[in-house]
Amino acid sequence: MPLNRRMFLRATALAGGTTAFSGALWQRAFASGPAQPGPGPYGPLQAADGNGLQLPAGFTGRVVARSLQRVEGTRHTWHPAPDGGACFADGDGWIYVSNSEVPVVGGVSAVRFDASGKVTSAYRILNGTSLNCSGGATTWNTWLSCEEHDFGLVYETDPRGQKSATARPALGRFKHEAAASDPGRKVVYLTEDQGDGCFYRFRPETWGDLSSGTLEVLVGSGTGPVQWAKVPNPQFWLTPTREQVSNAMHFDGGEGCYYTHGVCYFTTKGDNRVWAYDAAAERLDIAYDDDLVTSGEAPLHGVDAVTATASGDLYVAEDGDNMEINLITTDGVVTPFLRVLGHDESEITGCAFSPDGSRLYFSSQRGKDGFIGGTDGYTFEVAGPFRR
Fold it and tell me: Within a domain: residue 40?
């Protein structure tokens, strides 16, 4: 990035060009600009454990599943290239679902845990789809699995595997990345993994039913007040959805997306930013940008998947760099939470907390060998005293 742009961005932030958020827990966090490096609430990372995980004191990790190997205690073979994921309560236990970002046979698998965290079963919930990248959980406890190609669809799936998965073309055909449900506005936000991609929202005719509704795109001129405009032809097009509205905002490679406490956070890999859309105020701001770090070294690069705890802390995964998940606290501090050693050509995907907030799940998509097909993928669990 040219130095003049870097200096301009920093000057703008320090002058108040990037303002504090009005989300409930984030009003004070960025009063002086986007998140800055600092000490985290859990202390420094310790030496790597036997699985190559560097964690803070008091946290432990384990491998839950390996690509092309049977999930321990089951007859199910875990999929290659594990990507987006989420957790769902299920009786006295929970389920973790995981996409497979491979062509033609992508789909989704799930692992069920009992109350003690023991794996009790693993199974498929979606087959025959392609490049299932990220997605998002709905408030009615289904998983939206997103295809990442030019005519990609969103598939609504049942984490328990009891109901057939259903394509939801009303959410548009484009290079889908992630989705996030906003029950306050009764909309689903969507990111698009293109260098000039857009940020969308879908307004279903009936909340809880994604078979019909209106796809809209964010319009505006930058941070500050923004609006939404209807996408004329979201399903069948000669002109891509991102080019159908003249004043649509364009983002450099949309990635993760997560809604919490009135704010939808989404990441863009091309400029290494975490954005914050204040849904009530209809305002867009920047929660993190490595070019807006004003002291010390920026710890977070290659922003990708994002999730949050009930307390409002954000956890942002890296695609590459030094394979970290970074924590952005409600005080506006960004700091490494964990690091995966020996997976130098991989990326971290599928970050999701168990329903009680005590365990964090994520994957190393390509594992130690770094093969693009993801045949050496690892899915991890980290347990410990997370702030809830």
Answer: yes
CATH number at residue 58: 2.120.10.30
Pairwise CA distance, residues 77 & 207, whole Å: 35
Q: For 321-372, how does the pLDDT look when each residue is reduced to its tens digit (9 = 90+)?
A: 999 999 999 999 999 999 999 999 999 999 999 999 999 999 999 999 999 9
Contacts of 104 (CB under 8 A, 6+ apart): 128, 130
Residues counted in the chain: 388
Q: Where are the alpha helices (DSSP H) in the chain?
A: 3-14
For residue 109, being part of any structural domain is answered with yes
Mean predicted confidence (pLDDT) in 57-81: 98
Specify the amino acid at residue 76: H
Structural domain includes residue 388:
no
DSSP structure class, residue 76: P
| Cα–Cα dist 10/33, whole Å | 9
Q: What is the pTM of this model?
A: 0.93
CA-wise closest residue to 317 among 282, 346, 291: 346
The burial of 271, by beta-carbon neighbours within 10 Å (0-12 exposed, 13-18 middle, 19 or more buried), is given as: middle
Does residue 373 belong to any structural domain of this protein? yes
Give the chain's largest Cα–Cα span: 59
Which domain does 183 fall in, by range?
A: 3-383
Domain count, the chain: 1
